[in-house]
Amino acid sequence: MNEPVDAPETRYVHAGSDPRRQGGYVNPPVHHASTVLYRDVAEMDASQADPLKRGGPVYGRFGTPTSRAFEEALTELEGGHAAVVTCSGLSAITTTILAYVQAGDHILVSDSVYLPTRRFCDSLAALGVETEYYGPTADGAAVARLIRPRTRLLYIESPGSTTFEVQDIPAITAVCRAHGVATIADNTWATPAFHRPLALGAGVDAVVHSATKYLTGHADSILGAVVCTEESYPLVRGAAIRLGQCAGADDVYLGLRGLRTLDVRLARHQEQGLELARWLAGQEGVAAVLHPGLPGDPGHDLWRRDFAGAAGLFGVELDPGLGKPDIDAMLDRLRLFGLGHSYGGYESLIVPADPVSHRLPGTWAGRGPLLRVHVGFEALADLKQDLRAGFEVLLRGRAGYRVTDLSGQHT
User: Is 186 assigned a catalytic role?
Assistant: First the structure.
């Protein structure tokens, strides 16, 4: 592996790549591999002595040179000890949680987590693991009051899925370390380009990614990854082996390719996302824009302290009283904003969201319908015009309705 370099822009280009061991080629080859043949029994015995070590090849499911390259690159970018690649973002989450818990344990989970994460944590009750959700604006003292003798793990997603609350990770990890509680952070939204939870305050024990999103960046791969500390790596790698976790060679290669442009793509997502968020905040029919990069957002100060930038994903709360038929008509009218799940690709997306259906009472204060918006790389003028047409449909029955045009004037 190349010697580490300091400039972030350079790391994204060269991390996990060594043309000298790749036959001189810039990109590593894609290894479609299952069986590994050994020269003799001694070599076989040596390779199987400790499957947790990142040594020579053992079997395709344990990793190939392609997956190793991606793991090494992401490890360097996150500032971790080692990484584990999985078949999806959810598998990265579930594998890491299962690495820590056993029957009788109690875990704390942010109330604003990704809904599939919540459903998985709820299912742990069948295994004798109790999940307790805490409000995503809780400070360190509030978290400390929730820790029990059997609390094993705390799971953070910051900003929160759909509602984008920012958590005080340094305060939370300090409390957890003092009580011997492990911490996991989902860093899919910010990526290591904008946020490094392993190096923030006391540091988390593991960072999970849906690499499907910004890391790959082209809406053409399903991939997950976990970046670990030296202490957490044996636990996570061991769980991945027991659960049969691995990812397809082509998906891993697409993730590695995506890392090369992550820095420039995230800068574009940030620029476009902030501009469109500001524009939306001035539109009639919008009650609030949920974006920690905007001054006045409840999480803005924490975001400025702990993050280097903002992704292109945020929430838009519409006025209370706007009903599903009007919102459906608005979404159906849009031409450039695709109606589809996921995010992080080059294309703009929009979906309705309903945090009330799965949140604790009182942790979500919004009163109006919610939309989740992902801003891609289309021209901003075109995206605004697309939304303008959607708002005309949404509010066409409202007397005296005016929409702000592209120059900021009301029409």
Answer: yes
Catalytic residue among 11, 68, 105, 114: 114
- The domain locations on the chain are 8-260, 266-394
114 catalytic? Reply is yes
The mean of the pLDDT values for the chain is 91
d(CA 128, CA 150): 12
Q: What distance in Å separates the CA atoms of residue 155 and residue 207, rounded to the nearest whole number?
A: 10
Distance, in Å, from the CA atom of 65 to the CA atom of 58, rounded to the nearest integer, reads 11
DSSP 8-state symbol, 152: E
Hey, is 250 helix, strand or coil? helix
Mention every residue, 6+ apart, whose C-beta is less than 8 A from residue 411. Answer: 402, 403, 404, 405
Looking at 38, 61, 268, 328, which residue is catalytic? 61
- pTM comes to 0.91
- 195-208 pLDDT, tens digit each: 999 999 889 999 99
Q: What is the pLDDT of residues 156-196, one digit of tens each?
A: 999 999 999 999 999 999 999 999 999 999 999 999 999 99
Closest by Cα among 352, 322, 324, 354 to 340: 352
- Is 133 marked active-site? no
18 is catalytic: no
Catalytic-labelled residue, pool 105, 111, 186, 326: 186
In the sheet with 349-353, reading across from the earlier edge strand, the strands are 286-290, 313-318, 370-374, 349-353
CA distance 394 to 325: 9
> Within a 10 A sphere around the Cβ of 141, how many other Cβ atoms?
9
Q: Domain 8-260 is in which class?
A: alpha beta
Highest CATH level, class, for 266-394: alpha beta
> Pick the catalytic residue: 11, 68, 152, 213?
213
Tokens representing residue 127 in the block: 């295994």
